[in-house]
């Protein structure tokens, strides 16, 4: 029984205004069989370059089968190694579109195409860092409380963000370190002992201060501490990991591209929890491969992702299939209409993200909301 060959025929780009940290960009691919798929192209850091890569990769895909994901990867990885994040985000967005299309054509959720669902709950943590404008202990605590009231049971902040890079004055470093610990402590008090607290250091410390910080943070009983030192050299992160052993997990890897990038990171025992970002790592299939490599090393996977609700839904499809899935990032509180940008509306309860069970990514773009929040191009 021959079916018409489904090929890639068209591309649209939607942009919605979010905040000073960037817009959300959604790609939509059309096909010869009428099925459409969407994907998240947000947080590239350079939406202009990203859109050019999106069109470049689309030109490469046009007329090809909607199943040509490894072909897209080959094309996209080469460019991403050369040109960086904007190319990676464009490749990842198109890849999400193709998975969405494949799932809709087969009448199954993407997780069924990636091995089937084994995770009942897609546990998410509220990253409150982007939405907290008042960067005092009280400001972070108030946002954390809101997240808990909205169904989350785990909260992350990056309390050292105000520390300038390349500081050398020990007293100044200590001042910002103490400020960060105070913010984290306020959030711990706000959320209570039964919820989980995650701290992202955004690579602000050197290895000696990083190892020291782990000791100082121990009373806060962190779920994990993230990227204490820069991702390279991995030996520094590995030293922090050893210092944290028995006290808290360490996590990282959000900027790393592909299995090739993650191999030395995992082999070097940089962290306990790897955090590939489906937007930056090369796509949903790449995320699955990286998580498998982590599983081989006895590590957990916790995808990174300040993302639009489309990107979060896409990541969740993969998380549902990972034996070593730990928790997924959720960018909390950036805009009040976040949940409505997709249909069915995004829903978090009991600390978990609901999956609709519908074919593909399980969601559609709510064009009415997308248009209202502007920038259709
Ligand atoms: Mg991070």
Query: Percent helix among the residues?
Result: 40-55%
Report the C-alpha radius of gyration, rounded: 20 Å
Order of helices and strands: EEEHHHHEHEHEHEHEHEHEHEEEEEH
Reported for the largest beta sheet, the result is: 10 strands, mixed
What's the domain count? 2
Q: Identify low-pLDDT runs.
A: none
Strand content: 15-25%
Task: Please state the structural category.
Answer: alpha/beta
The name of the CATH topology of the largest domain is TIM Barrel
Mean pLDDT value: 96
CATH superfamily of the largest domain: Enolase-like C-terminal domain
Terminal CA distance reads 40 Å
Count of β-strands: 15
Bound molecules: magnesium ion
CATH architectural category of the largest domain? Alpha-Beta Barrel
**Shape annotation:** globular
Task: Describe the protein's architecture and organization.
By secondary structure, this protein is an alpha/beta fold. The chain folds into two domains: 8-108, Enolase-like, domain 1, CATH 3.30.390; 112-361, Enolase-like C-terminal domain (TIM Barrel). It has twelve helices and 15 strands. The strands form three sheets. Strands 4, 5, 6, 7, 8, 9, 10, 11, 13 and 14 form a ten-stranded mixed β-sheet that branches. Helix 9 runs parallel beside helix 10. The two termini are 40 Å apart. The model has no long low-confidence stretch (mean pLDDT 96). Magnesium ion binds at residues 200, 226-227, 254. Magnesium ion (MG) binds next to loops.
